[in-house]
Amino acid sequence: MNWRAIVTTLLLIGALVSGWSVWNQRSRELAATGPTARSDYVLIGFELTALNAQGKESFTLRAPRLARDPRQKTMDVATPLFLIPPGEGAGNDAWEVRAQNGWVSADGNELRLRGDVKGISSGETGPPTTLVTNQLNVYPDARRARSPSRVVINRPGSILSGRGLELDLASKRYSFKSEVHYQYARTAR
Q: What Pfam families does the record point to (predicted)?
């Protein structure tokens, strides 16, 4: 028997097994992934105003990009600016909240902000308040916010920091769960 015929036969069998293996692997990968997750719409450079169940403004969102998940009905937002209008009653200021990334729940009742979060109250009904953290969950209709992370709150005359923030946006009352530090900050006259 010729050695070239044996080598040719072995190479042919190897090529067939390799081709079958690649084809089999390809069909398994396609079946496993299913349909690709795509946004049902994307907004670029937009302003959106969300209304609550009573038809009043819950929040306004400005951002360069928003993508909506068609299955969960949630929205992912790049570098959002959320404008939360003043609530009803005395002592309710409007708030501006910025972050690197944002997420809006399907019903619009929860906003999750991540990365360089900064919230500023308008100061129309009391001292202006600024808060800085790396993550914040805001509930605009309930006028509440919370963060499990370290938060720094600046008000005229004071700097307060701590971990585990619970904030009432209407009254600007806040509490921390741990690591609370207070510093007097002299105000310019």
A: LptC
Query: Of 181, 182, 118, which Cα lies nearest the Cα of 147?
Result: 118
The model's pLDDT over 17-46, given as tens digits with 9 standing for 90+, comes to 777 777 776 655 444 443 446 788 898 999
Q: Return the CATH fold of 41-184.
A: lipopolysaccharide transport protein A fold (2.60.450)
Q: Round to whole Å and give the CA distance between 163 and 165.
A: 6
C-beta of residue 176 within 8 angstroms of C-beta of residue 165: yes
Q: State the residue for tokens 């299955």.
A: 71
Query: Which ranges of the chain does DSSP label H, i.e. alpha helix?
Result: 3-33
Amino acid at 185: A
The CA–CA distances, whole Å, from 94 to 70, 79, 87, 129, 152 equal 31, 20, 8, 11, 19
Domain boundaries, the chain: 1-34, 41-184
pTM: 0.71
Structure tokens of 157? 């005359």
